[in-house]
Amino acid sequence: EESREHDLNDAIADAVDELWAGGQRGDILVFLPGEREIREAADHLRRHLATQHRGGPVPEILPLFARLSQAEQDRVFVAGNGRRIVLATNVAETSLTVPGIRFVIDSGLARVKRYSFRNKVEQLQIEGISQAAAAQRAGRCGRVANGICIRLYGEDEFAGRPRFTDPEILRSSLAGVILRMKSLHLGVVEDFPFVEPPPKKAIADGYALLAELGAVDEANELTAIGRELARLPLDPRVDVRDRPQEQQQAADQKHQPFDDERSEFMGTLKLWKWVEEGRGNHGHAGQKAAQVDSHKLSNRQQEQRLREHFISPRRVREWRDIHTQLHTVVAEQGWRLNTLPASYEQIHLSLLAGLLGNVGCKVDDEECYLGARGIKFWRHPGANLSKKPGRWLMAAELVETTRLYGRGLAAIEPQWIPPLAGHLLKKQLLEPHWEKKQAEVVALERATLYGIVVYNNKRVAYATLDAKGAREIFIREALVEGLREDSFDATWEKKLPFLAHNRKVVRQVQELEHKARRQDVLVDDELIAAFYDQQLPAEVVGGSSLEKWYREELKRQPRLLQLTRDELMRHEAAGIT
Q: Running DSSP on this structure, what letter comes out for residue 167?
């Protein structure tokens, strides 16, 4: 991969030389697949051009991608002197027009979002662009004068590419689409006349995610939660932090006070409160505004304060628009706002309810996390956390680039999962057995969420899950085996006097065996178990239920559950005394 990128950067440098040969002027727009490729190409071009312009001004190299600060993006749209190179993603194909572009260099590559049906995550893969996208890129030059486009791939390769780019509906998760269609009563999703019908697998995955959220029932009809979700104007993800390429360390220092040890969500909340303090909104009563005078700052002062901390004023305005929309929906739904700040647990329980498929558990001695359905993912290198996450975490999203990364990370406790994921947990019961101290049949339960072990060896009352099986174990291990050794605590022995009586009679028969030097006098355990099975009603499955039934029934049968010596001896041994 490094060799391929090196060849690409060399090809771009050669194309630049060709276009500017003989002193030609005109800005160059270079299309590259992503931010990393743009940064590497920029470094390569700076070194290349520096050797050609010794002692003279070096042409300006300007990156253009979505995560750039507003100031860096604005530089691209200021007309230059005809000797600029703009390195852009496909955002410059149709969304933006860069002035002064006379030449285009097209790598023929783009980073495309595709939904993985196998891993249930979105992947950002570098792919060859379609013929239509290539034509769109070529059309960005020569708008003022004749332009030239150099494609860094062969004509045969161009001819073999698809004519058009796949529509987004064919490469995205369809959960949101299905939710909206159902809320609008557009009929059965599978029968809808899409211009480009998505594959059935994509529709099935969309339903599966909605089921995970509790938004649809077993018949795939909207639940009350689903109808509420359909009214929310989401999913917005707006990062307001700026990190200019030449001031990354300074930006990180200014952002550091907003970073939380355990949760990027809490870091975002810290940042939101700090922004609001500048507007004169100090949150809940009694909270102090940090580093800001109590009076409201003017708009100009607030913007200056934001820029000093490398926070984008434009994106903060987007934040506020989303906040206002959500407030409107909350009012329409009749929901109440909390009057006290929510705790860490409350905030993350709310988030976890929608992110159960993005839970991860630390793999021993590794930096990665085991996620749903056997996937492994890593903490995103740009995560805004002041410490490494703990053993359990959740991610706002899982995105695959060079590897599968979790973004929007927060530490969670595994015991939070079962109450939220009861409909998704797969449980196994292991080793049901009689426990003397609890006087009940106990099993060890193991639960997994999409293959991740949430808990192991949880002790559960077996009778609540399998009353018949618990009764059989209770009779065999507590009552029958209890004839030879104490299988109840002393408190139960007092409540159930038949236990001591039966144990005494068994010892008498065993003594007869010893005297007669025979081992076949005492009847086998199966016959004793059959005696208890016949006597005990179905609801008796442990110590408590036995004691309750025995106390009432003893009033009618004084010798209740007492075995006789004749019942414990085989018929052929009846003459032994």
A: P
Q: Residues 521, 524, 530, 536: is their CA dihedral positive or negative?
A: positive
Residues in the chain: 577
**8 A C-beta contact, residue 174 and residue 206:** yes
The three-point CA angle 339-343-349 to 5° equals 110
Task: Evaluate whether 116 touches 122 at the Cβ level (below 8 Å).
Answer: yes
Give the closest residue to 314 by CA, choosing from 96, 73, 35, 93. 73
Q: Which residue do the tokens 């109840």 mark?
A: 488
Q: How many CB atoms lie within 10 A of CB 96?
A: 13
* pLDDT tens digits along 25-75: 889 999 999 888 998 999 999 999 888 776 667 789 999 887 677 777 888
Opening angle at CA 119, ends 113 and 120, nearest 5: 65
User: Would you call 483 exposed, middle or buried from its count of C-beta atoms within 10 A (0-12, 13-18, 19+)?
Assistant: buried
**Cα distance from N-terminal residue to C-terminal residue, the chain:** 92
- Record the pTM: 0.68
Taking every pair of Cα atoms in the chain, the longest distance, rounded to a whole number of angstroms, is 125
What gap in Å lies between CA 378 and CA 554, rounded to an integer?
A: 65
Residue 80 near residue 56 (C-beta atoms within 8 A): no
d(CA 203, CA 330): 29
Q: DSSP letter for 28, please.
A: E
- C-beta neighbour count of 507 within 10 angstroms: 11
